Fold:
Amino acid sequence: MSTLNNERTQSQCENILRHLQSGKTINPLQALNEYGCFRLGARIYDLKQSGYNIDSRMTKAENGKKYAEYSMRIIN
Structure:
């Protein structure tokens, strides 16, 4: 079931997609600070369901906490 029926969710997905398509990575803290997105994993899932090829890798913060960082391969 897609959650893209909500305008805010669509807007977050569009912003995150633009961010990734620019060649940048994104993590949950960036998504919250830049786009007001508390559920980056859910938005990435929505984008993947829409056919976008998004990679993830687990990263460890200085405090030892792990988090996902997402990127998109840009093909020229």
Summary: The domain at 7-72 is CATH 1.10.10.10 (Arc Repressor Mutant, subunit A).
